[in-house]
Write a structure and sequence with these properties.
Blueprint (H helix, E strand, L loop, with lengths): L4 E6 L2 H9 L8 E3 L11 E2 L1 H4 L9 H7 L4 E3 L3 H18 L3 E5 L2 E5 L4 H4 L2 H16 L3 E6 L2 H11 L4 E3 L5 H5 L12 H9 L5 H6 L2 H8 L2 H9 L15 E12 L2 H21 L3 E11 L4 E12 L2 H13 L7 E12 L4 H5 L1 H20 L7 H4 L7 E2 L2 E2 L9
Parallel strand pairs: 2-4, 7-8
Antiparallel strand pairs: 1-6, 1-7, 2-3, 5-6, 9-12, 10-11, 10-12, 13-14
The structure holds thymidine-5'-triphosphate and magnesium ion.
């Protein structure tokens, strides 16, 4: 029996959450990403805004030129996270074989579920209905025998779509579509294939494998399988995060060391707080800087001992920062932790300063959980108050993706 894999993706997710909370925004061109005079790009555009050519990744300035009447919203990540959790909870009630891919996107294995819902199609109808009733959001759903075709189907069906590709029809479904529609084909691969005269997924599926491999390397073979509608990948249940990072783009590029440090401290605290919430410690700290010309550098340090304290993350980030000769104004700064482990306390406890730090962090977390992230500030981050207006979730940094 052919598998029935669903790909579910919410339409204009960030925007739709804003519209659900503020009905005045419904039916209008709306953009989440920031105000039009801000630097930065569109994160999400309503379908009304897309009619003017707006899309994710477009600079806000361009977006406001193309569609001056659009409502531009800064956005706030906690709202989207909450909506995402509710979305995933609804899906989990339909099938335990659930793989969240991003905040608004998941795969679900519905094989055999037709006996409960009458058909897989009906199951998808029910899923869409519950999301609409309970979250006031619209989901588009693709159903096929594997992930790739299901994803292409859901994307093609948007907005408010539902497309099922019958078993055996995968290849003919994909064949007429442009290669860019196939997951796994980015701009670079698209350019290479176009230069070879390959424009449709069908053409890709019948290209001689040896030629394909000589141009795309080993990935050529996998792409050709996908292009033929063959994809046996299983639904993978969510595994714990492998890394945690926070970053922000400055309103203006800066060389101000104090501002860099203050921001680094704030981002370290956010990383630390998330790390402790997950009950993990980290062995590896990474600092990231992007200069005004977009060159990006990262520096990494492995800790002698895993830690989950803000101070250790910040100290390590600062040490890495001090080693960098900042040659150009900085556009973006970020800090992340990786190599996450379950806490092993024994050694730490011999060190009373580590113990004190840990207690301090837990006390701060408790206050922040109760009164909001900015209820407590360290000396260094006080400076940020003048630059970013604080709110309950923390400082509003410049784009929603950055304040997470
Ligand atoms: P998408 O599902 O790619 O986009 P969307 O939900 O806004 O629109 P649709 O699915 O109908 O085409 O991404 C989900 C959310 O992720 C999106 O609402 C905002 C965020 N996002 C960004 O922050 N930056 C980006 O470049 C993209 C593509 C998405
Ligand atoms: Mg979406």
């Amino acid at each position: 029996m052919a598998r029935r894999i669903m790909h579910i993706d919410l339409d204009a997710f960030f925007v739709s959450v804003e519209q659900a909370l503020n009905p005045k925004l419904q039916g209008k061109p709306v953009v989440v990403g920031g105000r039009p005079d801000r630097r930065g790009v569109v994160a999400s555009a309503s379908y009304e805004a897309r009619a003017f050519g707006l899309h994710a990744g477009m600079p806000l300035v361009t977006a406001s030129r193309l569609c001056p009447q659009a409502v531009f919203i800064e956005g706030s990540f906690p709202k989207y996270r909450e909506a995402s959790q509710k979305f995933m909870a609804i899906l989990a009630e339909f099938s335990p074989y659930l793989e969240p891919v991003s905040l608004d996107e998941a795969y679900l294995d519905a094989t055999g579920f037709e006996s409960i819902y009458g058909s897989t199609h009906q199951m998808a109808v029910n899923i869409k209905q519950r999301i609409r009733d309970e979250l006031k959001l619209i989901a588009s759903i693709g159903i096929a025998s594997g992930k790739v075709v299901a994803k292409v189907a859901s994307e093609l069906s948007k907005p408010d779509g539902l497309v099922e590709v019958a078993a055996g029809d995968e290849r003919s479904f994909l064949a007429p579509l442009p290669i860019a529609k196939l997951p796994g084909i980015g701009k670079k691969t698209e350019r290479i294939l176009t230069s070879l005269g390959i424009h449709t997924i069908g053409e890709l599926s019948i290209m001689p494998l040896s030629a394909l491999k000589s141009h795309l390397g080993a990935s050529g073979e996998l792409l050709q399988r996908y292009a033929s509608g063959i994809d046996d990948r299983e639904i993978e249940p969510p595994s714990a995060a492998k890394s945690i990072s926070r970053e922000t783009t400055f309103g203006q590029d800066t060389r101000d060391r104090l501002l860099l440090k203050a921001t680094l401290r704030y981002l370290s605290e956010r990383v630390g707080s998330e790390l402790r919430q997950q009950g993990k410690q980290a062995r590896c700290v990474t600092l990231k800087l992007r200069y005004s010309d977009f060159t990006t550098i990262t520096r990494r340090h492995t800790l002698g001992q895993a830690s989950d304290t803000d101070q250790t993350i910040f100290d390590t980030g600062l040490k890495l920062l001090k080693r960098i000769q900042v040659k150009q104004p900085v556009r973006l700064i970020g800090i992340g932790v990786a190599s996450l482990v379950e806490p092993g306390r024994q050694l730490d406890m011999l060190d009373s300063s580590a113990q004190r730090r840990e207690r301090l962090n837990r006390a701060i977390d408790r206050i922040r959980n109760k009164y909001g992230f900015t209820a407590i500030q360290t000396g260094r981050t006080m400076r940020l108050k003048d630059i970013f207006p604080p709110d309950k979730g923390g400082y509003t940094l410049h784009t929603p993706s950055l304040s997470r």
